[in-house]
Amino acid sequence: MPMKRPSDPPAVERRRWHELARLLDPDIDPAALRLMEEMRLVAQSLRRMAKSSLVASGLSYAQYRILMSLLLARHFDEHDQLNPSEISQLQGTSRNTISALIRSLENDGLIERRLDQSDRRRFNISLTPAGHELVKRHARHHTAIIGHCFGALSDSEQTTLSRLLRKLGEASRRLEHEHQPHDPAGEAPASAEAS
Question: CA 91 → CA 19, 100, 133, 161, distances in Å?
Answer without folding.
Answer: 37, 14, 21, 25
